[in-house]
Design a protein that fits this description.
Length: 226
């Protein structure tokens, strides 16, 4: 693992002299727009700052953590190839306290990107992005400025649900997010159909984000998979 992280550091050290080494996925561009993260903020950090922490998600995917002013954090998920180039997969921002949510039913659309084994569940309603809660590396929940969950992003989805890619592609998703003063807990169920049992995924993280207590039922409507 140390060698893998050293390889990432080496690539980052050479980005300033050759910024063309940075590529972007469609998902990344969509996420920074929804999360109001300036593209130049990410690229400037990548080219000029050493991450405060690098976490290995799997053999080719890594999470970079940058500590910003006022205790804010920017996290960037990347992949690399040829030990020269990186591709940006996602970015998220943790920065603010949130107010009490208005209701507990959240309607979302869901898509599964088989190329990156990524589930993206998101709201099409108008909202003002608040912050991102990291459940674990590559598994995030976005909240709006009122404390509503507006998106769930999960990399390595099929492995987390212990399904094959084709099974993940056909699976319907539903879930619940429970927030207490101490924890944020998410439960997701993936139902592939046929004779395969529903897979249940539960994770929780300390509520260090000042999000008010509530329980949200996630109503997910599927879209065509990528």
């Amino acid at each position: 693992m140390a060698n893998d992280i050293d390889n990432v550091k080496n690539i980052l050290n050479h980005l300033k002299e050759d910024p063309m080494r940075i590529g972007y996925t469609e998902h990344y561009l969509e996420q920074i727009e929804k999360r109001n993260i300036p593209e130049t903020c990410v690229t400037d950090l990548l080219e000029n700052e050493i991450p405060n922490k690098i976490t290995k998600i799997n053999d080719h995917r890594f999470e970079l953590q940058y500590l910003l002013k006022d205790s804010a954090e920017l996290k960037v998920i990347i992949t690399h190839f040829n030990l020269k180039n990186i591709i940006l997969i996602s970015a998220s921002y943790k920065n603010s306290s949130l107010n009490t949510p208005a209701n507990s039913r959240v309607e979302l659309e869901g898509i599964y990107d088989s190329a990156f084994d990524l589930i993206h569940i998101y709201s099409k309603a108008h909202y003002r992005y608040g912050q991102t809660v990291e459940i674990e590396a590559g598994f995030n929940i976005d909240f709006d400025s009122c404390g509503h969950p507006i998106a769930v992003e999960m990399i390595m989805a099929s492995k987390k649900f212990k399904l094959q890619n084709r099974q993940m592609s056909s699976a319907s998703i539903e879930g619940q997010i429970e927030i207490t003063s101490e924890i944020i807990k998410i439960r997701l169920e993936a139902s592939p159909g046929s004779d395969i049992n529903t897979r249940v995924l539960e994770r929780e993280v300390a509520n260090e984000y000042m999000i008010s207590e509530n329980v949200f039922d996630l109503i997910v409507y599927p879209k065509p998979n990528k």
